[in-house]
Amino acid sequence: MTRFSAKLFQEIIKSKNKNGNVVFSPFAVHAMLALIYRASEGETLSEVQRVGEFNQHPVFSWPWTSSD
Q1: Which CATH number is 6's domain given?
Q2: How many beta carbons lie within 10 A of that of residue 36, not counting itself?
Q3: Residue 38 φ then ψ, to 5°
Q4: Residue 66 lies in a domain
Q5: Which tens digits make up the pLDDT trace of 4-57?
Q6: Cα–Cα distance, 52 to 18 (Å, whole number)
Q7: For FRET with 23, which of 5, 6, 47, 64 sits at 20 to 30 Å CA-CA?
Q8: Where is each Serpin domain found (predicted)?
Q9: Which residue has the higher pLDDT, 24 or 58?
C-alpha cells in the first residue's frame, strides 16, 4: 500500500494548486478499491488489481471466502 499511497499523492498534487494544502486518506481509498476488487470480474478485476496493486493471496481463494 505504500507505493500505491505515494503514487496517489503524486497524482493528487499534480491536479491541485501547488500552494494549497492537501489532506487525503490513502487507507480509505485503498479500502474502497479492495471492496471493488472483491466484487469485480473480467477486465474490471484486472484493472482494479493493477491500479490498487493487489496481489492475490492464497487465503482469498479458499472456498469459504468465495462469492460464488
Answers
A1: 1.10.287
A2: 15
A3: -65, -30
A4: no
A5: 888 888 888 887 666 677 788 989 998 998 899 889 999 998 898 888 887 766
A6: 25
A7: 47
A8: 2-56
A9: 24
Domain coverage including residue 33 = 2-54
SS3 for 8-26, per residue? HHHHHHHHCCCCCCCCCCH
What lies within 8 Å, CB to CB, of 25 at 6+ separation is none
- Model pTM score: 0.62
* Whether 44 contacts 29, CB under 8 Å: no
Residue for grid cell 479492495: 34
Distance CA 33, CA 45 (A): 10
Burial of 34 (0-12, 13-18, 19+ CB in 10 A): middle
